[in-house]
Amino acid sequence: MLNEISALTEVDRARSFGGWQIRYEHQSFVLDCKMTFSVYLPPQAEEANVSHVYWLSGLTCDDQNFVTKAGAQRYAAEQGLAIIAPDTSPRGNLIHDVDAWDLGQGAGFYLNATQNPWSKNYQMANYILTELIPTINKTQPIRPEQRGIFGHSMGGHGALTLALANPDLFKSVSAFSPICSPMHCPWGEKAFEQYLGQDSNAWKQYDSCELIKEHGLPWPVLVDQGTDDSFLEEQLKPELLVDASKGQPYPLILNMREGYDHSYHFISSFIGEHIKHHAQYL
Amino acid sequence: MLNEISALTEVDRARSFGGWQIRYEHQSFVLDCKMTFSVYLPPQAEEANVSHVYWLSGLTCDDQNFVTKAGAQRYAAEQGLAIIAPDTSPRGNLIHDVDAWDLGQGAGFYLNATQNPWSKNYQMANYILTELIPTINKTQPIRPEQRGIFGHSMGGHGALTLALANPDLFKSVSAFSPICSPMHCPWGEKAFEQYLGQDSNAWKQYDSCELIKEHGLPWPVLVDQGTDDSFLEEQLKPELLVDASKGQPYPLILNMREGYDHSYHFISSFIGEHIKHHAQYL
């Protein structure tokens, strides 16, 4: 499947900070449904291929939350970075779903489900690694070897786990308020049991802390977390990521941000620092 | 009615760029319904009262579009400006409405309606001038004499007309893609006929071009307009504003922005320049 690419239909395009904010649709062969994603191209991309970063969004989001709310385009234009924002799950009336905001559509957890009925479509890890990345490489004015990844909450978990499991694919990694150890929080336990089954040995490949313990931390990781985030203690648990990173050759840089919550007001306040972090390594 | 103030209920508060993004509800005595508005307070407001700017949104918006999409907080924090974002019309099941996005709820046009059934609640000019401004003056850490106003599309029209009709209340004025002469475009003609009746003499007090011809331009005005805005030729007509401003002691500064459209991607790209414009005069 690797290196197949999808035909893209451009559904929207708007000038933004001298570059272009573009939205594409395509028929995903990995997910077996129509998917939408967004790309920001900075002004520098009109002259030469640019470095690029994938943004993975959190529970309930699609590709538009980040595009409209994070205020990232200004900094991406300053640094000459493209940003690719996929959706958070397979989509559509034919895709299995349940009446919950933390499972099913909008809550794909960036893994490959093995359990029925989820396994037919919920293959978000394969979608990003084997379909979206080759498609972006072939169709966008980016430098394929200069790739970073970041995300928020469930998408912070996605960015950390996809990068830790595929360290050669990503040169820079950061996260806002990530779910640091889904094996040890209610959101993760619920989703992993449904998507991956009851055997928690199958969960470890999608748990950042387990991946660091197993394979090490091959680059510095920047994490920002608000102290007034209502999910901090029960769901996010950055202290587990700090523990897992102890003794690693590269640091985990955890910024606890006094008084900030889990919203895009928090993300937009610090997105500039994350984009500078990626630009430094790309 | 002047100088009465409303009791406010805080419904949301989030840290943003070192300041606070806050949302309030109140029972409006001018509009006779419950209204919501938002306030951004920059970090400087914790030390001293700050200058402030009102943002008026366009058709279909409420107070949240600007707050979540414009990316203004970063610049407001840099310049030490508070921003107040009201809703665009009276709201609720008891408020008259029609099945249209350019009339009724979400489309108040910042005027005082004189025609039934609109006149009972559609008093947005009075709401802002005689209720919201006194309420903000009494409850927020702002300098009451240091007030600016700006807006987008219908809200650009609102900012220009409220300021031109009340030049002593506002020290700085700017607009994105304003409806420059509602008397001479389909959106304005439809709304003014409904809200103000068929006699177009009653329309002139809400038309920027007429107000400039009648009273002059008492400060410089900054306007940004995208060249690829699909409403440019039929609805917005900045050339009428340029004509009306000829020979005035202060300039109309019109920036035509190549390739930009009518969206918040356009606004966010240039909001920093507008906030600097206001900070320069406040």
Question: What does this protein look like?
Answer:
The structure is a homodimer of 282-residue chains. The first copy, chain A, has 282 residues and is of the alpha/beta class. The first copy, chain A, has 9 helices and 9 strands. The first copy, chain A, has a 9-stranded mixed beta sheet, sandwiched between helices. In chain A, helix 2 (73-79) runs parallel beside helix 9, helix 4 (154-165) packs parallel to helix 6 (208-215) and helix 6 packs parallel to helix 8. The interface between A and B is medium-sized, with 24 and 24 residues.
In short:
Chain A has about 280 residues and is of the alpha/beta class. The first copy, chain A, is built from 9 helices and 9 strands.
| Averaged pLDDT of chain A | 97
The share of residues in helices of chain A is 25-40%
Distance between the termini of chain A: 27 Å
- Report the oligomer: homodimer
Provide the succession of SSEs of chain A: EEEEHHEHEHEHHEHHEH
Counting DSSP E segments of at least 2 residues, the number of strands of chain A comes to 9
Helix/strand/pairing class of chain A, anyone?
A: alpha/beta
Shape of chain A: globular
Largest interface, with counts of residues having CB < 8 Å to the other chain, equals: A-B, 24 and 24 residues
Give the strand line-up of the largest sheet of chain A: 1-2-3-5-4-6-7-8-9
Beta-strand portion of chain A reads 15-25%
Q: Low-confidence stretches of chain A at least 5 residues in length (pLDDT < 50)? A: none
Q: What is the CA-based Rg of chain A, rounded?
A: 17 Å
- Major sheet of chain A: size, sense and barrel closure? 9 strands, mixed
Enumerate how many helices of chain A there are, as a single number.
9
